[in-house]
From TrEMBL:
Function noted in UniProt: Allows the formation of correctly charged Gln-tRNA(Gln) through the transamidation of misacylated Glu-tRNA(Gln) in the mitochondria. The reaction takes place in the presence of glutamine and ATP through an activated gamma-phospho-Glu-tRNA(Gln).
NCBIfam families noted in UniProt: gatB, PRK05477.1-2, PRK05477.1-4
Cellular component terms (Gene Ontology): glutamyl-tRNA(Gln) amidotransferase complex; mitochondrion
Domain of life assignment: Eukaryota
Protein name per the record: Glutamyl-tRNA(Gln) amidotransferase subunit B, mitochondrial
InterPro entries reported for this sequence: Asn/Gln-tRNA_amidoTrfase_suB/E, Asn/Gln-tRNA_Trfase_suB/E_cat, Asn/Gln_amidotransferase, Asn/Gln_tRNA_amidoTrase-B-like, GatB, GatB_C_1, GatB_Yqey_C_2, Gln_synth/guanido_kin_cat_dom
Domain Asn/Gln amidotransferase: 400-549
Gene3D superfamilies tied to this protein: 1.10.10.410, GatB domain, N-terminal subdomain
Biological process, per Gene Ontology: glutaminyl-tRNAGln biosynthesis via transamidation; mitochondrial translation
EC number(s) per entry: 6.3.5.-
Length: 550
């Protein structure tokens, strides 16, 4: 494998065909199955393969930096704003002027505790802050305040599901361990001015609160890691602890990747830093797994190094050697006392105002319904398919839209979901609109579906009305149906007349039906619906046509 694929382009080509073997629970959680992201050439050549040791597999762990959604920074009262003019949100502390001291922002601590609870972590009622030293122009103090020794939350898990399998229609469920969540400061930003060969520093981001979610090496391929990132993003957005906009750097992923033979100790990891989209996470990891396999198979060694993902070439490139060179000289932060949070109001010591401290029970009570629970409830309560529950939960506002329609209509949720997925989402996607921007309200859609359910209009007529509602949202649904003359034909004679006209126009079809081929009746029905603009009740129409062609 290595001999023929030493160049970058060959590697890239193979990477696209990467096979990642993952042992993973299926949705029932009862049995294990293997999934393949795609097939590699090697897998298709069993003769070559059989002489070799078992194939190496990837091992992946993520470290995710999530910017805390708060109005001010972690240790200062400066505002947090993504697109503010450079250096407009910088306090003396953020710029590390001598004599300034950190003051912990309670909102950031609450966000970390809520996130810890949502990720099934144990919350440390006493946690500590440390200094981690490194020298970058955008880190004015020369160190970052973080939580290396005792972080705020530990020993959690992140469960996520995604559609996988051969046809991408099976729900795969997986759980990865969360080692810890630590509170830390973000750095500033270096802006490189290539024309004048200089670097400018913007400290607006310096000191913004971050939660670093550190996972254990429990994943095996890019697809899994991307699904984990998407799920964490949704959880954080649901909690409101991070806005999760990856393009704006609110969620940044470092992917730790190694390869080994199953059953043997883990290999040396390389860390691909600062990946800013879930899709790139998948691509970077799959590339990196394949690169490391190539290196080892051609007799080389994998370096413990930091790499960067280049989205243009789809490759990872070395940034710096990590081992040995990086000594962070960790030390306790002398300007911050231990951080105490309390299990319940009852455990808050005398003399401390419970209103001014973080109480875990209080935050637990505020936890919203999380994405995983939402999906399960949607499937159990409304009997809808897993893939539909995914879309409902992932699209902002869609689940709320769906549930409001359910409340106001007599139509079965399982039938109704088709209207939401096909008609509503189809129209929104075509026009690049969000659910909240839909001109058709849930109430209006419910009225339309009620007319359909009560037999006042046919489903094809309802689709026409839906399009009209889109164009004229101010008009009442009943009014539109009348205006378009789309109510079902209740006059039997009129329907018989239309049927006769259609039969006269299609004598060939009538002959085939009379000859015994009853399936062709559907064609005749379609022609009548076309002629009547979908105004014939299908059951009634079938009865009439059956009689007239007998
Ligand atoms: N052999 C391995 N293969 C893949 N991932 C690994 C391996 N060994 C450790 N990891 C993962 O690497 C990460 C180590 O993160 P940690 O924050 O402890 O150290 P760091 O990466 O050196 O520090 P930082 O990136 O924060 O400066 C964890 O997510 C851990 O699960
Ligand atoms: Mg880390
Ligand atoms: Mg790291």
């Amino acid at each position: 494998m290595a001999a023929s694929c030493s160049g970058n382009s060959a590697l890239l080509h193979k990477c696209v065909q990467l096979k990642s073997m993952c042992n993973i629970h299926q949705s029932s959680g009862v049995f294990m199955r293997r999934i393949w992201t795609s097939r590699s050439k090697c897998q298709l050549q069993p003769k070559l393969q059989s002489k070799r040791a078992p194939q190496m597999v990837g091992v992946v762990a993520l470290e995710i930096h999530a910017q805390i959604h708060a109005t001010s920074k972690l240790f200062s009262s400066s505002r947090v704003g993504f697109s503010a003019p450079p250096n407009s949100h910088v306090s003396f502390f953020d710029a590390s002027l001598p004599g300034t001291l950190p003051v912990l922002n309670r909102r950031c601590v609450e966000a970390a505790v809520m996130t810890g609870l949502a990720l099934n972590c144990r919350i440390n009622t006493k946690s500590l802050f440390d200094r981690k030293h490194y020298f970058y122009a955008d880190l004015p103090a020369g160190y970052q305040i973080t939580q290396q020794r005792v972080p705020i939350a530990v020993n959690g898990s992140l469960s996520f599901s995604y559609l996988g399998g051969k046809k991408r229609s099976e729900t795969m469920t997986k759980s990865v361990r969360v080692r810890q969540i630590q509170l830390e400061q973000d750095s500033g930003k270096s802006l490189h001015d290539d024309q004048r060969s200089r670097t400018l520093i913007d400290l607006n981001r310096a000191g913004v609160g971050l939660m670093e979610v550190v996972m254990e090496p429990d994943m095996c391929c890019g697809e899994e890691a991307a699904a984990a990132v998407r799920e964490l993003q949704l959880i954080l957005q649901t909690l409101g602890t991070c806005q999760g906009n990856m393009a704006e750097g609110q969620l940044r992923v470092d992917a730790n990747v190694s390869v080994h033979h199953p059953g043997e100790p883990l290999g040396v990891r390389a860390e691909v830093k600062n990946i800013n989209s879930a899709r790139f996470v998948a691509r970077a990891i799959d590339y990196e797994i394949q690169r490391q396999i190539e290196v080892l198979e051609s007799g080389g060694t994998v370096l413990n190094e930091t790499r960067a993902f280049d989205s243009k070439t789809g490759t990872t490139v070395s940034m710096r050697d990590k081992e040995g060179l990086q000594d962070y000289r960790f030390m306790p932060e002398p300007n911050l006392p231990p951080l105490f949070v309390y299990e319940s109001v009852a455990t808050v010591p005398d003399g401390v105002d419970p209103a001014h401290v973080v109480v875990i029970d209080r935050l637990k009570a505020q936890l919203p319904e999380l994405p995983g629970a939402k999906r399960t409830r949607l499937m159990e309560e409304y009997g809808i398919l897993p893939e539909h529950s995914f879309t409902l939960v992932s699209e902002d506002g869609l689940m709320d839209f769906f549930e409001r329609v359910v409340q106001k209509t007599k139509m079965e949720p399982r039938k109704l979901i088709g209207w939401v997925m096909k008609e509503l989402m189809g129209n929104l996607n075509q026009r690049n609109l969000k659910v909240t921007q839909s001109p058709v309200s849930p109430e209006a859609l419910a009225q339309l579906l009620n007319l359909l359910e009560s037999g006042f209009i046919s489903s094809s007529a309802a689709k026409v009305v839906f399009q009209e509602m889109w164009k004229a949202p101010e008009k009442r649904v009943e009014h539109l149906v009348k205006e378009l003359d789309l109510g079902l034909i209740s006059d039997q004679e009129e329907l018989v007349k239309i049927c006769q006209r259609v039969m006269d126009a299609h004598p060939d079809l009538v002959q085939v039906i009379r000859g015994g081929n009853k399936k062709v009746l559907n064609k005749l029905m379609g022609a009548v619906q076309k002629e009547s603009k979908g105004r014939a009740d299908p059951v009634h129409l079938r009865n009439i046509l059956e009689e007239m062609t007998s």
